[in-house]
Design brief:
The protein has about 130 residues and is an all-alpha fold. It contains six helices and no strands. The model has no long low-confidence stretch (mean pLDDT about 90).
């Protein structure tokens, strides 16, 4: 992975941290709503956290070293899209407007995810 790609990933990771921090009030409200909801219901926070952990972990791995398992990583990133979750799609469509800062955090995760895929695919040709 070229040095400029690593710098971009580092910038996007910092922006993601900022978006996470800025969404604290929205996350607290969501947590309270989910806590009061029926047991066994889907968790928007949980769905996002799982995806964020995968995306951030792979991006940080790319910053430390040139990954050898590029196809596996891109497959994992493809599967980690928020748009692969019916729970998140429904929530975004029905409640997303009420939680703009949390939606910005989700968008930052997606941005980091798609950029990491692009950079990994670019390194296949190197």
């Amino acid at each position: 992975m070229a040095v400029s790609y690593k710098k971009v990933l580092a910038v996007l990771l910092r922006l993601l941290e900022t978006a996470f921090s800025n969404s604290s009030v929205n996350r607290k409200v969501l947590h309270e709503l989910e806590w009061q909801a029926e047991e066994g219901g889907s968790s928007v926070l949980g769905e996002v956290e799982v995806r964020a952990d995968t995306v951030i972990g792979i991006a940080r791995t790319c910053l430390r070293k040139q990954p050898e398992n590029i196809n596996e990583l891109t497959d994992a990133l493809e599967e980690s899209s928020v748009y692969r979750s019916e729970v998140l799609i429904d929530w975004l469509a029905n409640s997303g407007d009420e939680f703009p800062d949390f939606c910005s955090y989700i968008a930052a995760i997606e941005n980091l995810r798609t950029c990491t895929i692009t950079f990994l695919r670019g390194s296949l040709g190197n």
